[in-house]
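Journal club prep, shared notes

We agreed each person brings one worked example of a sequence with its structure written out as tokens. Mine is Serpin domain-containing protein. I'm keeping it raw so we can talk through how to read the token line rather than staring at a rendered picture. Sequence first:
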Amino acid sequence: MAKLTPAIIILSLLTLFVAGQDSAIQFPGDSNTEECHICSSSSQLQEPVGSPYENYVDHVIARGINKLCLEINQKYQEINKVDNTVFSPINIAGALALLLLGSNGQTFHELATVLGLATGLDIENNSERVHEHLGQIFRKIEQRPYSVGEDEQQINFANAIFVQDSFPIRKIYKETADSLYKFEIFNLNFETEPVKAQKYVNAWVSDRTVGKIKEILSEPPLPSTKIILASAMYFKAKWEVPFLGEGVTQRRPFYPNGRKSPSEFEVELMGLGSELPYLKDKKLGCEILGLPFKGNQTVFYVVMPFASSVQKLKEFESRITEADLESLAEQTVYQKVLVSIPKMTLESTLNMKSVLSKLNVHSLFNPELANLGLMSPGVASTRGIPFRKHAEDEFLINSLTPSSSNPNDVIIVNKSGHPINCSSIFDNTNNITTCEEIAGDYKGEHNRIKRKISNYGDTIDSLRHLINQQSGDNNYQNPGLYASRIIHKIFLSVTEKGTEAAATSLIALPKSFSKISFRVDVPFIFFMRHEETKTILFWGSVERPTPYFNTGS
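Then the structure, token by token:
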């Protein structure tokens, strides 16, 4: 049987610098479709499970991510004149959530606002509760339906912090992030070995994206780099209803200016005839079709405005809301539909700094205003302190000046990125804790949802309040970390694989099969949604599908 296998790989990368450390730091309508008769909705296949309050929190988080999705799409297109815009809002939100977890002050409020968490939730006092729910959403998305094999669906998230050797990360931040999200931490030497650090980060990217994205750092990081935060997502799945085989896919004209205007290029259109979620919405002026993946847990929705063209699509995108998207998906009903959709390979690298700045995230990129004090205490308190010498294959991080009640509030990591066997040595003269890790294999599970903080005594919210109360204490100063770049790189491939025989057996559809024809040969948008959490995993606005073939007309 012919199969269509989309492989989606997304990675967000954030490079953080420290301000004020030394002089080396650089500041850088087709509207002729018949009405549908309601039978069943694709959204009814996944119902939320949990208490009303838990469902409410999940709903606020999902709405926030979906709202951010539309805002990124709008702002990115304002800044960049591109034919296609593709990105993963859930992946971008995951990277921003790791920053939110370690932020304070203005940076905390700006990140909470852009994520849609500042309204309807007590994010100021219960941010950790919100992070627990977001972590649960990631786990639900990763969980494969029992009826679906590993070869039929894979969804994996991965997060990592690459830290300058000798730069501290707060223990409570590391343990909280590790408990709520999939999290790895690695020591690199940006100062003296930037090329080696570049290769290491790119190797991590390649490994976590199964070789689809081989490079995200095109040049070595600056020697002043202190932290690189990376977030990756890998998605691969098979359709619930397979498309016809390669023998059926044919080049057909694509009409960027509408079907009434001449076409200058062709695309490869794949074919399918089946019962699929469909809706024609006269109020919003569009059609929507759902293509479920195996298990019906995730659905790939395609939306076309009536009489679509580049201009019509931009107008549609400017007025649609996250509530509209949810309503469209919720109201789809299974109907017999003949589908033609482009075969696509889309790859994009987004500079998220300019987009987020337009969404009022300013302090994160300002060396004087950024506050990531819960991620790291900085290194000011450890200047001039001699380090114990260590072998080349060992990694050492200096700690901040500890409080008398808690000398172990900074995490020390080994080369593999995971604490294995730590021996603390307290130097009364310098009041410094130095901890050397013994490298070893780490095979811990990452499916924990609840935090398991080891005897810290405070939640990360309590630490935030403590820092704010004792802002004059050197132990709790702003470390001066700020973001220089936020890179979001994505690769999407939609292709068919199958036999000619399978295609032949599926072509024999009677002409009376359906009056609904969904032919995607004009500009369109698509989004991939996880049905239980109602979260958009992937978004695309397409004016010129790639590959395309010029006709010369």
